[in-house]
Design a protein that fits this description.
The structure holds two protein chains of two kinds.
Chain A lengths: L21 E12 L2 E12 L2 E6 L6 H8 L9 E9 L2 E2 L7 H7 E4 L10 H12 L5 H14 L3 H4 L12 H13 L5 E5 L7 H14 L4 E5 L3 H7 L2 E6 L2 E7 H6 L4 H7 L5
Parallel strand pairs in A: 3-8, 3-9, 6-7, 7-8
Antiparallel strand pairs in A: 1-2, 1-4, 4-5, 9-10
Helix pairs in contact in A: 3-4, 3-6, 4-6, 6-7
Chain B lengths: L1 H29 L8 H27 L5 H20 L6 H41 L2 H6 L3 E2 L6 E2 L2 H32 L2 H16 L2 H22 L9 H26 L2 H9 L4 H30 L2 H6 L17 H9 L8 H31 L5
Antiparallel strand pairs in B: 1-2
Helix pairs in contact in B: 1-2, 1-3, 2-3, 2-4, 4-14, 6-9, 6-11, 7-9, 8-9, 9-11, 10-11, 11-14, 13-14
The chains are: A alpha/beta, B mainly alpha.
Chain lengths: 271, 392
Amino acid sequence: MDASPQMPTLSKVPRILNERETKIVASDVNVYYGEKQAIKNLSIDIPDRAVSAFIGPSGCGKSTFLRTINRMNDTIDGCRVTGDILVDGKNIYDRDLDVVQLRARVGMVFQKPNPFPKSIFENVAYGPRIHGIAKSKADLEEIVVNSLKKASLFEEVKDRLDHSGTSLSGGQQQRLCIARAIAVNPEIILMDEPCSALDPIASARIEELIDEIRQNYCIIIVTHSMQQAARVSQLTAFFHLGDLVEFGDTDEMFTTPKDKRTQDYITGRFG
Amino acid sequence: MTSWTLLIIAALTATGFFVGQAKAQGLRNAGTASLHSLPAYHGLLMASMALAAAGITTLAVAAIAGPNSLVMPAAAALLGTGAIAASYRIITRDFRARNRFEFFVMLVLIACSAVAVLTTVGIVFSVLFESLAFFSEVSPIEFLFGTHWAPTSTPPSFGLIPLLAGTLLITFIAIVVAGPLGLLSAIYMAEYSSRKMRGVLKPMLEILAGVPTVVLGFFAALTVAPLVRNAGESLGLNVASESALAAGLVMGMMIVPLISSLSDDIINAVPQALRDGSYAMGATKSETIKRVVLPAALPGIVSAFMLAISRAIGETMIVVMAAGLAANLTFNPLAAVTTITVQIATLLVGDQEFDSAKTLSAFALGFVLFCFTLVLNYIALRIVQRYREQYD
C-alpha cells in the first residue's frame, strides 16, 4: 500500500524497513476465558507501517485477540492463551519476556478515552517518566510537545498544558491518549474501537490522524464501523465467532470478499 | 386504653382503604369515561387520611388528657370516621388521588428525616445553653486558653489547653499507627489480593471494627499499657503506667478497619480504565498504584482519614481505661495525659449537683468537642465534593 503523494512527511526517525515487512506473526493462537474459548486456532501475519483493521460482529474475538498482542489479557482472571505470537520474530509469550518492555513497544488506545486525572503535560510525560526515556527536563518537554504535535493536539492545548487532561473534550481526550501512547516511541499501536465514544467530527479527526502516522507504526484498529475500516485501513481482517475468516487487502475485501460470511456481514445481512 | 385506640386506628385505616377503593371501583364500573387514578390509589389516599386524622387526634388528646382517658379512643374513632366521610365525598372521576397520595408519601419521608435533624439541633442547643451557663461563671478566655485543669480543687481552675493537648497527642499517635496500616492494607485488598483472599480479609477487619471499645479499653489498660511500660523500662525509659502511647496504640487499632474499609471502597471506585491505561503504557502494578490510582483516590482517602480522626477524638472508653486522669500539659507520649472525653465522663459520673461550675464545664467541653469534629467532618466533606468529578 503506497503512501499517497499528499501525505505529509513526518519528522519521526524513519525506520529503515521494507514497506510491508511483517511485524507480527501469530500462529495457532487459542484464547480461553475460563471454559469458554474466545479465539480458535488463529494464525495471521500483520505487516509493519500499515493500518490493519479488525472487523466482525460483537463477541467475535477481535478485541480479545488485540489484547493478546500487548498481553493486556494477563490482567483478566481466568484468561489463558496458547500458541505463539511473534513480534519481530520474538515470542511475546516466552517465559523470559518482560511485559513492561513489551508494552513500551506496543502502545494501546482504548474504546473510552481514559486520560489520567493529571495535567495534559503529565499525561503525555507518564510513559517517558516510567521508562526513563527522557534524559533531562528539556528532553522530556521536547518529547511531550512532539507527541502532542504528532497527535495533532498541540495547537489546541499549547497554552494550557497544565490543565487537567480530563477537562478536554472527548475527541481531544482520545487524541491525548494517542499522544500518550506515541510518547514512548512504540512500534505497534493497538486501537480498540477508538472512535466509538466520539461524535462524527471527532472521529474524522482521529481517522485523519491515524492516516498521518501510519507510515511509522504498525497500527491495528478494532472497529464496528465498516466505513471506518474501509477509509482508514490498508488491510482488513474479518472475525466471526472466534475464527479469523478472512484477512487481506481492504479494497478487495469490501469489493470481492472470498468468504460467504464476510460477504453477508459487509452487506449487512447479519451482525 | 392505648391498645384499644391503636386497634381503632388500624381498623379505620383498613376501612378507609376498602371504602375508598370500593367507591372508585364503583365509579369506574358505572361510567364510560376512565378514572384519573386507579381505585387502589383512592383507597390508599383515604386510608392515609383516616390514619393521619385518627393518629394526630390521639397524640393531641394523650398530651392534653393523658393516655388513660376514655376520650382518646372516642376522639380517634370520631375524627377518623369524619376523615373517611369527608374524603368519600371528594372521590369523583377526575379526583387526582394518585398525586395526592404521592404528596402524602413525601410528607411521611420528610417527617422521618426531620426527626434526625431536630434531634441533632436539640442536642446542640441544650449543650450550648449549659455551656453559656458555665461561661457566666468562668470566662471563656480562661477556659479556652488556660493551661491548668483542676475542676475539683479549691479554687477550681478550668484551662482547656492540657486536655486539648492530651486529646491531640493520643489522636496523633492513633493516626500515625492506623494511617499506614489502614491505607496499606486497603491497597493490598483492593489491588493485590485475590477475590477469595479479599472475601476473607474484609469481614475480618470489619469484625475488628465491631469489637466494643470497652473491650479494647481493658485490653489497652491490662495488656498494652504494661507491655509498653516494660518495653520502656528495658530501654531505660521512665514510662507512666497509664501512658498516652498505650492508649494511642489501641485507639489506632480501633480506627484501622475504618480507614482500610473506606479506603478500599474508594480505591475500588477508581475506574478500571485508568489502570488499564497505565498498564498498557508498560507501568508495573506498584507504579500504577503510586502514580495513577492513589492520586485519583486521594480526596477520598483524605476524607477517610478525617473521619477516622474525628472518630478518634470523640472516642472515650479506651482513654478512660488506659490514659488516666492526670491533666498534664505535655507532648511526651510516655507520660500520662487525659483527654476531653475522659474529663467529661469523670465530671458527670456519680452524684453531682447540676448547677456547679464543675458539672457545667462538662457541657462546655462537649461543645468544644462538637465544634472540633464538626469542622473536621465539614472539611472532609468539602474535599470529597471538590474532587469528586475529577475522573469521569
